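Bench log, entry 3. Co-assembly request; chain sequences pasted below exactly as received.
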Amino acid sequence: MSEAGELTVTLFRFGFLILLWVLVLSTVGALRRDLAVGRRNRVGAPSAREIRRNPELMEEPPPARAAARRLVVTEGPLTGTSLDLAASPILLGRAQEATLVLEDDYASGRHARLFPQGSRWFIEDLGSTNGTYLAGTQLTRALPVEPNVPIRIGKTVIELRP
Amino acid sequence: MSDVLTAPRSRRNVELLLLLLALAVAITASYLAGVDREEAFSEFFWTQGLTLTFMSLFLHIVLRLRAKYADPLILPIVVALNGIGLAMIHRLDLSAMQSNPDIDPVASQQVMWTAVAMGAAAALLILLRDHRLLRRFTYISLIVSAVLLLLPLAPAPIGLEINGARIWISVGFGTFQPGEIAKITLAIFFAGYLSTNRDLILLAGKKIGPLQLPRFRDLAPMAAAWLVSIGVLIFQRDLGSSILFFGLFMVMIYVATSRVSWVLIGLAMIGVGVFVALELFSHVALRFDSWINAFAPEVYDRAPGGSHQVVQGLFGLANGGLAGTGFGAGRPDLVTYANSDMIIAALGEELGLIGVVAIVMLYVLLVSRGIRAALGTKDGFGKLLACGLSFTIALQCFVVIGGITRLIPLTGLTTPFMSAGGSSLLANWLIVALILLISETARRPVPTAPMKDSFPEALGVSGKPVKKRTAKVATR
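Structure output for the full assembly:
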């Protein structure tokens, strides 16, 4: 191979390394834009830096909530039943292994689960046939449950009480 | 489990731009592989370039039509890795052909497998609109995994033993490793089982110090996973897959329960397994010996189970140095299995530390996008599945690159997307398709229409009241 050809090939080889890193860095760049935390992403909470720049972004601290301590069935076949909440998740459904066995024909075997995270309880539907309704809205993902808000499972309504 | 939300934009154009960049990387690599031998624009160059370009643009269009909001970074990363792998396999073929012109080129077969694997990924994206359908096949996929793992042990016309490992079966036109597909079906089973039974497993057992131990009978699934891994090790003599299966289970149970005690119990069981394997099986003991005493001359020269391969790989890496010898200018062909198990050593020699770090970065980005899809998706099954599948890619990279750099003993696992081998390529492209599907549900904006009836009377999803019978049938 000629001198000039060899030089070109060497340049090509270094160029390949550069091209490889261009790919890596542009992927990282696209990833950074993809995170989109800030003004474009309305759902995300403002970051500490944004709060420093625009103090009006600071949200009021949420009012101190009374922690839920009990689960009470307010409607349905089991009305009046109550259950003390501990630190472990609660499985709701007709299946025998459920923490609260619902004798409700419209509930699924493993209908929903209540689980603690931080200081709050969350409810998550486990793919039930008839759905779980929190304050009248069907759950599409895990949502926090405030005390005294009705959760409807089939014909049963349960509430958390402080 | 909390949700991490991103702005709902499809970003398919970003994907197209990155895809073009990835194709440029792949095609440059393929050009450099042949340039020294005056056959840069050989037939292989054109088949490789055209196959990769055509199939990746096809996948891109499938994504535009079927999974508009899927993660835009995954496809370009995987195409780049696959292309670099193909170029390196071709380059090693050229070296091998210099000494023996009659050998069958591996690269052309690998190009065919790439096309098959990308086609399979596209088919999965088209046929399976929602990954949650897979949850119905929880126990079927357990049976399928068992069959796949047992197939290589079948008598001679089906099961094959190559290099002491019994992990191949013969199919009409060649060999296939069913264990590669088994890692997907096992991940589906673990995800389905754990997302259903997570709360039962969480029930507290004894407490020792800060550790909350699980109840004794809940250890049954873990014991089963341990037995599968040990079985793979004993009967198939495949240390890599054994580590992979058990690691997969441990990560998924940890993600499902967030209990450290599971990890500690798992590590203890691995410790027992490793100890027993060291005592009982000579090939495991030899592996260990050739890891610790790699540079001892008698270990280097030992006929079976010597450290020749890993030490040659290290020499290659040292020869490469920081910037490498240049693609096509090193001697990676001196390492045995340079195009499959040791392909990272070959790339390290020719691209140097700079190139290998870029490749590792691509893997890190790929895995992080998989974990990101797991964080974003709303259903527990999808979270566990995405986590488990991306972890298999991460663990495979760790085991392979760790083995080549002599951080851990060398085990025969494939480098995802790069190593020569059709079954691994096919399985990994299917994993990519699944992660793309899960990332689509994670990033797709949720339709938020106000409810007409503020408190519906036990309505089904379709809006019709569901009869008692249906409700019963639907439960398990």
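Chain B touches chain A through 70 residues (CB under 8 Å). The first strand of chain B starts at residue 159 and ends at 162.
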